[in-house]
Amino acid sequence: MNMAPEEMIAGPAGPERIQALRAELAARGLTGFIIPRADEHQGEYVPASAQRLAWLTGFTGSAGMAVVLADRAAIFVDGRYTLQVEHEVDKASFEIRHMVDQPMTRWLDEALNRGDRLGFDPWLHTADQAEALRLVCERTGAELVGCDTNPLDAVWRDRPPPPCRPVVAQPLAFAGRNSAEKRLALSDSLRAERLDGAVLSDPASVAWLLNIRGDDVAYVPLPLSFALVQADGTVDLFMEPAKTDDALVAHLGDGMRLMRPADFLPCLGRTRGRIRVDKSTVPAAVVQALRDSGASVDMGLDPCALAKACKNPVELAGSRAAHLRDGVAMVRFLAWLDGQDEMDEVQAAERLYAFRARGDRFRGLSFPTIAGAGPNGAIVHYRSSPATNRRLLPGQLFLLDSGAQYQDGTTDVTRTIAVGTPSAEQRTRFTLVLKGHIAIATAIFPEGTTGSQLDVLARQALWRHGLDYDHGTGHGVGSYLSVHEGPQRISKVGTGAVPLRAGMIVSNEPGYYKTGAYGIRIEALVAVEERPVPTGGERPLLGFETLTLVPIDRRLMDVALLDTTEQAWIDTYHARVYDDIAPLVEDDVRAWLQWATAPIC
Q1: Do domains 5-155 and 168-308 have the same CATH topology?
Q2: Which residues form the Peptidase M24 C-terminal domain (predicted)?
Q3: b or e along 385-401 (b: 16 or more beta carbons within 10 Å of the residue's beta carbon)?
């Protein structure tokens, strides 16, 4: 798959670029402009052509936003990037703000004056975001102006062209259901909700519905595109024709109209009836176009989201096969790592990539590998660079969070590895995290249970010791699609309020992080499955099947803190890992695996 887009941004950011933007804004009669880290689809990863924030400011993190006014400018980032932004952004040009503690709306309340004209690109903001900006302008007496074309693009002289890589069919052998069946089911669901159609603004939904994959962004096999689905199941697909060939057109079949992206807005202008849009991803420009046409806009959940989340038997079988190959790569890597005396984060990540690349159907990483040694492991979304790269030193913990895209499945696994002899504190806290991991893995719960209701299970052992972690316990995962897929989650906040259903894949990843010292996370992917109802039971039950097949470091376990049921789970899991992986690896790796999966007591 293609490289990360921030790695393809050429040239230094600096005062010259912000001056050029200000001149363009003045020529358009604008006082200021907002630059989000976003593309038209609100995706986690965006192409090089949409890396406007990085080009203007130098900031390459995955979340942020800047505001440029005539005499002031600011960049807003979250807690993951407070150190990174200080190194990458010219503080003489931009005020640096925390987007939670010092939100952009508050800054605008202070910075805007009556009569100011604040510009924004309605393709890069959702309708909710645009409404929040409108309210700020209303309070300050300013005017919010939706720009027909992006003024930053007018001064970005060496802007890369939008991606136009070939789109390919995802074979039925991996998809499990053909596109015609999916479109028929979608038609039924739209009619059941008395909807006349839906706009699909998330390329992952387009890819799933039409059984296609692309290579337009890093880490996720997406063809950037929009689709308009009618209640009769017909689909208008808005995508550059250069991405297609005769084979793909034949694959798309009847009931499909392939149209150019330039046709999208005119088509929306002819759309009538009640149309569903996903409020979390749809651009404000799409909502406005539908309302201007006289359509009734229904803000809700992407109509493909739940169907995509509930994997069919073929997709589940593919995920199991992908995790088996991924387990082989991880075991080879861990066996190799245990024999190294000199190693650093970057070398470890590169070596793991090489082991994965040997596997069948490997298509690339599913996200940038997080390889954090010692204190770097305490940074939840850490990404090693030449400036931060650390050696793996005795007495440290090494947190390795990584995943891959295979044509039949997407993987994501975290293991915390002892380098040398761990301390008593490290072993205690690792074991508390492990108890939470086991609690999720062994949970049995009635249908209708949400991820937010399960989240406490992962935290209870830590809570008893006055400890916790600040991220969610689990996120949904796609089938050779995004490693972060909704709507399901395991989280203590409201985003985990979607009931779990059979076939969903979620991560199980409790953790603990001691700032400046070490980080611990134990992550496996699990599939929701039906469980038998005991005699006298009155509710259908669900549980989890663990898909990941990678040993958990026994050196970090304090067995005295584990009850007999937890000990039995570890030994049973490790026996399964050995039985499945051992026949597929070399003799020396098999010998290491036998040691790594030996009974803990």
Answers
A1: yes
A2: 541-600
A3: eeebebebeeebbbbbb
Helix (H, G, I), strand (E, B), or coil: what is residue 202?
A: coil
| CA–CA gap between residue 597 and residue 588 (Å, rounded) | 14
Nearest to 200 by CA among 165, 235, 231: 235
Confidence (pLDDT) at 495: 62
- Token pair recorded at residue 316: 């589940």
Report the C-alpha gap between 545 and 369 in whole angstroms. Answer: 25
Q: 54 and 6 in contact (C-beta within 8 Å)?
A: yes
Indicate yes or no: pTM above 0.85.
yes
From CA 314, how far away is CA 308, in angstroms rounded?
Answer: 13
The number of helix segments (H) and strand segments (E) in the chain equals 19, 28
Nearest to 521 by CA among 600, 424, 443, 412: 412
Q: At what angle do helices 564-581 and 587-596 cross, to 10 degrees?
A: 170
pLDDT given for residue 12 in this prediction: 63
Sorted by where each begins, the domain ranges of the chain are: 5-155, 168-308, 310-566+577-587
What digits encode the pLDDT tens for the residues 559-574? 999 999 999 999 999 9
The HSE-up count of residue 187 (CA atoms within 13 Å, CB side) is: 13
Contact 344, 390 (CB under 8 A): yes
Torsion of CA 338, 343, 349, 355, to 10 degrees: -50
CB 8 within 8 A of CB 48: yes
Q: Under CATH, which number does the domain 168-308 receive?
A: 3.40.350.10
CB 83 within 8 A of CB 98: no
Residue 260, classed as helix, strand or coil, is coil
Instruction: Determine the CATH number of domain 310-566+577-587.
Output: 3.90.230.10
Residue 300 and residue 275 in contact, taking contact as beta carbons nearer than 8 Å: no
Distances (CA, A) of 442 to 61, 151, 313, 430, 506: 36, 54, 22, 18, 14
3-state secondary structure of 495: helix
CA distance 46 to 543: 35
pLDDT tens by residue, 72-130: 999 999 877 777 888 899 999 999 999 888 899 999 999 999 999 999 999 999 999 99
Q: Which two tokens stand for residue 234?
A: 């017909």
Helix 345-357 and helix 313-337: axis angle, to 10°? 130
CA dist., res. 134 & res. 284, Å (int) = 12
- The Cα 470–Cα 515 span in angstroms is 12
Check if CATH label 3.40.350.10 holds for domain 5-155.
yes
CB 9 within 8 A of CB 37: no
Strand 541-546 to 445-446 pairing: antiparallel
- Spatial separation of the C-alpha atoms in residues 478 and 360, rounded to whole Å: 19
3-state secondary structure 118-132: EEECCCCCEHHHHHH
Residue 105: HSE in the Cβ half-sphere, 13 Å Cα cutoff: 12
